[in-house]
Amino acid sequence: MASWPASLADDLRRDIEQIEARIERLRDKIHSCRTAITLSKLAGLGGGLCFGAALTGAISADATILVFSIAAMVGGFVWLGANQSSLQGALEELHADERIRADLIAQIPFGECLPRGNSAAQKDGPPNLNQGIGSPDP
User: Fold this and answer.
1) CB of 80 within 8 A of CB of 37?
2) What is the domain extent for residue 84?
């Protein structure tokens, strides 16, 4: 069996490691975007509830409360939109990088995936998977 050039195997492994590190960073970014989306929804909801309570007379309606509640609603909606677009972009990048990683892994020959120095696998070949449990040994 011809050996696969070690430099190519090392290059592929390095590329796979780099893409996996990028995937991990994207997953962290996605998590932070989802957290920010939740917080922005809470800010908008809190501002809306405060504004509604001030309008109905449930709380005293001075100008400060009205201004802060409107600011919380608007800020929450703006922050929500920004984080949703960031989340969408990160998800697209993640899916693209996962496809690239799968393509890189597919380029590695099967023999390179076996542990090095496994003399039993080199001598005997792969195990006989057709032999069931309890069947007589050949």
Assistant:
1) yes
2) 14-110
Q: Is residue 127 part of a domain?
A: no
* Structural domains of the chain, count: 1
Q: In degrees to the nearest 10, what's the CA dihedral of 70, 72, 77, 79?
A: 140
Digits of tens for pLDDT over the chain (138 positions)? 455 566 777 888 899 999 999 999 999 999 999 999 999 999 999 999 999 999 898 888 788 889 999 999 999 999 999 999 999 999 999 999 999 999 998 887 766 555 555 544 455 555 555 555 555 554
Residue 120 in domain: no
**pTM value?**
0.68
- Residue 137 included in any domain: no
